[in-house]
Amino acid sequence: MQAKPNFIMPLSDASAGLSQVGGKGASLARLAAAGLPVPPGFHITTAAYRRFVAEHELQEQILAAVSAATPDQPATLEEASNQIGKLFAQSAILDDIAEAIRRAYADLGAYAGLGEGDVPVAVRSSATAEDLPGASFAGQQETYLNIRGADAVLEAVKKCWASLWTARAIAYRARQGIAPDSVALAVVVQVLIPADAAGILFTANPVNGRRDQIVISPAWGLGESIVSGAVTPDSLTLDKTTGRILRRETGHKRTMTVRTESGTREAPVPPSQVKKPVLRNAQAAELAGLGVRIEELYEMPMDIEWALREGRFFILQARPITTLPEPPLEWLLSQPHTIAARLSLVEFVPDAVPPLFATLAVPIVTQATSRMMAEVLGFRGEAGYYFEVLNGYVYSCINTHTIFQYGVFGILGTSKILRYGKARREEVQANSRAAANKWQQMNLTTLPAVELLAGVRGLFGATSDYFTVAQSGPIPLSTMSETLFSRFYNALVKRKSDPAAASFLLGLDNLSLEAEKSLFDLAQWAAERGQADLADYLRQTPAHAVWDALQADPVSAPLSGEFAARFAAHLAAFGHLIYDLDFTKPVPADDPAPVLDALKVYLAGQGRNPHIRLQAQAEQRRQAEQTITLRLDPLRRIWFRKLLKSAQDCAPGRENAIADLGLTYPQIRRLLRELGRRLVAGGALGQPDDVYWLEVREADASAASLDRNEPLINHAANVEERKAHWHRARKAEPPAALPETSWLGKMMTPRKSKANILKGFGASAGKVTAPACVLRGPEDFAQMRPGDMLVAVTTTPAWTPLFAMASAVVTDIGGPLSRSSIVAREYGIPAVMATGAATRRICSGQTITVDGATGTVTLA
Length: 860
Fold this sequence. Notes:
The chain contains 28 helices and 25 strands. It is an alpha+beta fold. The strands form 5 sheets. Strands 18-25-24-20-21-22-23-19 form an 8-stranded mixed sheet, covered by helices on one side. Strands 9-8-7-6-12-13 form a 6-stranded antiparallel sheet.
């Protein structure tokens, strides 16, 4: 014998599930069973809906009407909804279902002490696809308030059933991919709370995503005025832990929803209450406490509807928040009494770094810096000066208890530091080159996995020593000598018609320019060798495809063994030029696609000949020097020549030092690629490059397990989560200094700009209007087109080929003496540095105007 369908269930029945009572009903049952203040009521289950549809043979007609509707054509949706609405209106509720509803309604009246047939209720739709964590379906079905009498309740129930097929519900389900034959509707009938006030509570801030805040929107009367948007409610933001009000905005509440004899209407708010706060502080804290209980019950942020009657709160509905933004990143230093800034190392690590660089490389460069400070200035330990990674971004940190000591010794020890950097440069450069050559000769497949990581540590240790020497010698020497010459020249020499001070440093050769000339020469050779097929192939074939072909078969036509050999020689000489000190990013040696894209520009005749450009600059410089020298008196002539010679001697050293920072990087990446390959084979990772998303302790443990032939821990879930966090961090704007409220934070906060204007340092004169191309790294280089504005966080020597295409340069960080500024002046294109947020404010393809004289970038 078939069991009799269960058409009615008590509201607080803990067994009420989604398939029986829908999303709203299941949520109310859960709340009531947990002892939360939910108004009494009952469920009319989906069994009643399905029985009604089956007995009247409506399902086939419903599906036919829905199938004729198209989500992006509103008229078809309305037509389908109207057809289905008529089907429900013309069909009577079956006697056994109606009788069950009447009994439950009578019992509810007796329970509420209002007598049979007289209790005012809210009749709410509750669909099986509703109030879900991934899709709320909020407002898709109907609710009827202040319904009195069994007959009115039955009519409201039938209207709720029909509302499963409103035009908006049909469209919403279609977009969510929910099949129309899989849904059903339950109905919740509850005692109507004659609310003095009502509203919505979010257990997380829906504007900024902060999970430690609660937001309450209260208004007078029933809650429908807020849900429908008919009133501007108050807004309260509270601290979730303490219930303390952080912010209160009192709305101008002109209307409210009130009860009538048989429904509701909008009525004017009494004048005394229009600008009066709805909730007192204590009431808001009490309501927030209920919100915390509900969030703990569901273990997720919740959207809650509530009502207040005679000082007592009631919970009317709770659903997961489905559109909550990510919470803001926190920028909290790990050590007290510390200030931090995006300086020093940051110019070479401007982007967020993956975990392996953060946990392996940053401690090594901290140790190298500490050794230098100890050797030159006598400091011991790392407590005073160190690097820390916050949300993937590297910060230089100084303990405030020792900052005066550092300041004094920094001033007194400047000459020591410069001598140290100058004396050790050749030594540390040779060490880096020797370490790279040693590992280049090794067969990595025969080495234990732990030795691969030991090799990475040794190679990056050599790079870190070189970095500290470059930072203490060639880089500051170049900056100081150019600054001294510029100040002397501008104050005591320059006339209005004379060239800018920077012009006297153009046309000086360096490693980056040698790389540019080498690439240009290769393009010239390919174009002039008498066989057009090679040049055509290189111009027309995507860069990655060319590289794949070179690796697979470098001697077949249209490629030739000679081209492959010439390109290999170029990479051998310049393939270590880094895009970024973050070794998790490729260098030209292992991914030369950006170099091949630059080669295409020269083959197309769109890049300027660097030989001619440098010769012209050198000639202009010599003529200017001669003109200035002849007109100066003996004393100024002596100092002009002396300061200029110092600046010209030091300038190439700065660029060469930066260019050689990556001497070990091709081998670092080769070792990590081999480790990654083994971890993939062992089931720990999905692809070899995922090794960069491990923390160093995980990499060490995995390497040890590999060597012992032990099963590996699968890190795939951690890797994907970390990649998602990294992508999110890249969209953030890291504070220039921390704490942001400190004197350093206030001093380094970027200057405020107008909505369409970014301000920075004018580094190379000129004014150009053109489309922007925003590049975060070499993976974006293929987007660059001749004439685009190059917009980047900063640039390193490996970016130089892009300057041949750029009509101007804009960066987030840097200054008049930064590398980007110098290269822009060499190319004669406008440049604006240190805008703070150009890569976040500007979109690729957007037309912008760069004015290098005023240091402004105007957004169209």
